[in-house]
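pasting for the record
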Amino acid sequence: MMADRASPQDIKGALAISVGGERVVLLPDRLLWWPASRTAFIADTHFGKTATFRAHGIPIGDETLEDDLRRLSDAIVETRCERLVILGDLIHARRGRSPVTFDRVTEWRRRHRDLAIELVKGNHDRAAGPPLAEWDISILPDGFQQGPFVYRHDPHPATEGFVLAGHLHPKVVLPMEAGGKVKLPCFWNRGGVMVLPAYGSFIDSGQVQPEAGHEVYAIGDGAVHEVTALVRSGR
């Protein structure tokens, strides 16, 4: 028997919006959920980035990898999704293909063996090599279309439909009430293209530059907030 669908009201801090004529839900766990297809989307996990730094002699632990996998497990339970699409850059680099990284991701995959996982390869994936066979991840072609959506890594628009993409690791700079500014990960609707925030915690980011017709949804204090007007005001 299929599990009942969760609703945005069931997920603390989630925000339901409409893109491409479909209702989707933005989660503070940096995940986009498409309830109608029971599919969740993330981008830019960059598994093995800390291992890559260690390979270059920089002593960094794997706490961020553990936290990212825990957050992903929580989101899978919250949404009751049956399918996960990763929009590129699953593995950070070839030197990040360490036994520690592989063992932890493999163990996580065993706990979610019934979840279908698909990957649109990103630029890092092409250099880092394929995921392990034990992860049971299917590869989708860049530009794969399902319903109104087109799945890509690079956020280029498509005439075939509304694009879901990653690659840019978007963050937004917002003023704080007490003075100063804060930089937050965000979802960036660029008008026909939704750019997801980097799912990996240990990831560099680029500040969004919204234009007319764009929408920005920042993640802060455990919730997703529509901040387009605040970003445009420059206050």
